[in-house]
Amino acid sequence: MNKTEFLEKLKTELNVYSSDEVDRSISFYSEMIDDRVEDGMEEEAAVESLGSIDEIVNQIKCELPLSTLIKNKAQEKFEKHKDNGTRNAVIITLLVLGFPIWFSVLAAVFAIIFSIIITLWSIDLALWIVSLTGVVVSVAGIAAIIPAASIGGWPVLYCIGTFFVGVGMSILFFFAGLYTAKGIIKMSVALVKFIKKLLVNGK
Question: Is 182 exposed, middle or buried (0-12, 13-18, 19+ CB in 10 A)?
Answer without folding.
Answer: exposed
